[in-house]
Amino acid sequence: MKEFYEQREIEYSRGRLAGHDVLDDEGNVIVTEGEIITDDIIEEAKKKGKLHELMLSAVAAEVALGPPEIQPGMNLEEQMEAFVRGKIVGRDVFDWQGNLIAKAGSEVTDELVNMAADKGLLQELVLAVGAPGIHSKEEK
User: Fold this and answer.
1) 82-121 burial, b for 16+ CB within 10 Å, e for fewer?
2) CA-CA distance, 46 to 66, in Å (whole number)?
3) Which of 8, 35, 47, 121 is in the most buried spot, having the most CB atoms within 10 Å?
4) Which of 29, 122, 15 is nearest to 79 (CA)?
5) What whole-number distance in Å separates Cα of residue 46 and Cα of residue 52?
6) Neighbours of 57 (CB within 10 A)
7) Which of 45-49, 99-103, 112-116, 131-135 is predicted with the least confidence, judged by mean pLDDT?
8) Bigger pLDDT: 61 or 51?
9) How far apart are CA 20 and CA 76, in angstroms?
10) Which residues pair with 100 in a beta bridge?
């Protein structure tokens, strides 16, 4: 399952603008805000364990001109929370033990956002609400 999401994140990120800088754990820049995300950048992010962050940077660029709730200066978690709040879940989301936390077709409430944040599943929730380009036509 991890490979499936990893591939989707790669497909989503490739060719998009980075909405913010992504750094590795040592503080080295993987991509800078406004830079086009290339295969080389994707490989570097993957090697450094920052593929989720890279994809979320691409999501941030997509939503930067969209929802007014995304404001400059918000940290990554705040951006994810603002992005998913009020959206409809496109597929079931499970925690790491296999427990259902969000059912496809349900609305993302503050309670769900808080639960996902507490369980470290905000990224999964971003994917599940269908950030533009994440879900294939067959999944919709």
Assistant:
1) bbbbebebbbebeeeeeeebbeeeeebeeebbeebeebeb
2) 28
3) 121
4) 122
5) 9
6) 29
7) 131-135
8) 51
9) 9
10) 94
Q: Is 47 exposed, middle or buried (0-12, 13-18, 19+ CB in 10 A)?
A: exposed
Q: For every residue of the chain, which 3-state class applies, written as one string?
A: CHHHHHHHHHHHHCCCECCCCEECCCCCEEECCCCECCHHHHHHHHHCCCHHHHHHHHHHHHHHCCCCCCCCCCCHHHHHHHHHCCCECCCCEECCCCCEEECCCCECCHHHHHHHHHCCCHHHHHHHCCCCCCCCHHHC
Residues 6+ apart with CB under 8 A from 9: 51, 52, 54, 55, 127
**Residue 1 burial class via C-beta count within 10 angstroms: exposed 0-12, middle 13-18, buried 19 and up:** exposed
pLDDT score recorded for residue 26: 94
Q: Are 50 and 24 in contact (CB under 8 A)?
A: yes
Q: Which amino acid is present at 92?
A: D
Query: pLDDT tens-digit profile of 82-128?
Result: 888 888 888 899 988 999 999 988 989 999 999 999 998 988 888 88
User: Tokens 């001109």 map to which residue?
Assistant: 65
